[in-house]
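I have been asked to look over a protein record a colleague put together. Thanks in advance; the entry in question is below.
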Amino acid sequence: MTLVDYIVLFLYFAGMAGIGFWALRRVKKQEDFFMGGRSFGKFFQTFAAFGAGTGSADPVNTARGTFVSGMSGMWGVMYWLFVTPVYWISGVWYRRMRCLTLGDWFVERYESKGIGVAYAIFGVFYYMVYGGMLFAALGKVAAPLMGGSVQFLGSELAVESILIPVIAVIVTLYGVLGGLTAAYWTDVIQGICIILLSVLLIPFGLAAMVSQFGGNGLMDGFRIMHEQLPAEYFTIIGSGNASEFPLHAILAITIINMIGIVVTPHFIATGGGSAKSEMAARVGLVAGNFIKRFCTIGWVLTALIVLTLYADDLSLLNDPDKTWGYATLKLLGPMGIGLVGLMLACLLAALMSSVDCYMLVCAALVVRNVYVPYFNPQASDKNCIRLGRIVGAIVVIGAVVLALAYNDLFKILKLTWIVPMTFAAPFWIGMYWRRATTGAAWGTVLFCLFTFFLLPKLIPMVAPGMRDNPNYALTNPLVETTSSRTVAPSDIARRNAEIEAWEVIQSVPVAGRSNKPVALKAGDTITETSATGGKAIFWTGGVSTVGNKILKEISSTEENGVTVVTRVYDCKLRGNGDFRIDLLVYHSFGINLVAVSSATLSTLDLPFKILAPFIVLIVLSFLTPKNNKATLDRFYVKMKTPVDPEPDKDVVEMEKSYAQPDRFNGRKWINHPDLEIQRPTKLDFWGFLACFGFCFLIISLVFLIATIGA
């Protein structure tokens, strides 16, 4: 990075901090700090939803997935696409809650201050983990841009060890000063930066391809990509057992996120709770998330460009998470006009626009659901805001610690799919079924906590012999597939890099040298062998062999030039990691898990985590006492009462509803005393349908881009 790049970064940081000081004067009470006075229209809600939903990990994860799997790697982020139509409906929920936190909603619905505490703990933990992923992703990008390491107080430190804490200080500064108002104003600026980030590298990359490989105009870059890369890199849906995102995995991930996203704590704000009206809540949430889907296409194109230009760079093959930072350094660095600093500022914007919101939501949860009900029921707004600022800073510090200690982005991403399921069933069932009880909600939360997180670790600790038990040290067969295809130019470049690396290694006198890779040339046929299987059924850390590794061939087939050899372990195995209780459930029902592919095994835990909490809550609801009818009447009539954008008029409408709890019963879809399912309005129906159609429009655009230049 040059001096100009650092000046760009400084100006960006100064601007964000300045907004915090400006917004400080507008914070008078809790609703101002945590909800911005519920005064935001469609424009601000759009950028709030876009900013909070788009983190620094998104372009990094998308680029990594595309670099490894081709265009199907986009599903590392694009799986949210078909969740978006649900937002058209849920945006109204959050506005009608009229709460400052989702914890308040759980307290009101289940008549339990304790469940509000449990939700606050969940929220703080969730955002420390998620924020840690965002900080870690930024470190992956910053490392190649800023040289990988810096000298600090006489010691050499990784650049992320310095940069991440500095960013944390800035985002904490403007967030704790100006609250949600500062966050939303910065989200507008940061949202523009994220859009710029998504397209900035594409024209430079296309120009570089045309310059390197020859062509006429930028559009020729698409032709060059198809010439240089294997055809499977332009497949949208992953195929085969080795694919990270086959179709069934995409479906399972979409469903679990559709169910879980509604209980993530920040949705009470960016999902519509801070909006001035219900329409602003709806439009902002949907539009903000659709903008992100278009940006995802830009991230995929950038990764394909990197694959084309730098297929011979072994450092990217060893760590694909660095794809985005490497592309920035190579394509923008030579310009020397501050574009690298601008790109880093844009990535900072993606991080900061998410973390500021998460910080404030966690602060609200601790203040509203822990401090006020248990420690200071008469707390003033001033005391609550002061504590909120302290809690927000602590949450950011926790995320920084996790980022520096935990570096596997995809593993963190999968964890964020599971954690929200702890409260998903009490939310969904509680929205529509009066019979859902406090005891059932607590039972479901505890079931998820123990089954998903604690028991998998405790079981092998209590019964260590299970690791060596042959009934549990099972794997699916190892399948080795060998096929041939004509080499692509990128294969030749990669092989040349491997030969060069081999020659460097051979200059070091070590024993056991490997054979030199065979050079490739145009027109050659390359034989590729992919291996899948051998995946442990019941252990998250796989299995290891005890003694010599012995494999027994059980079948071998050849068809259309493709040879498939299947082998199984014929030796003693030992399980590692946590025990997968969910797979034991499938096994107990007689499902032959040994015959299941690795891709399916990786996905099988999701259906259990989706269905089990709902079954537990429904069963426990029939076994535990009903909640108070008067409390439920007030809760459900509030959720049915449309919001008036004028606060005074809204208070009047709520008084009417509380005085007449059956005010909207005529709109019931099913006439049952325990069911609270309302008939959808025309706006509900046609808006949802339009959103769903827009999803297919975006997918069609991706397919179109995949064919350009083919």
Observations:
- The domain at 3-419 is CATH 1.20.1730.10 (Sodium/glucose cotransporter).
- The two ends are 36 Å apart (CA to CA).
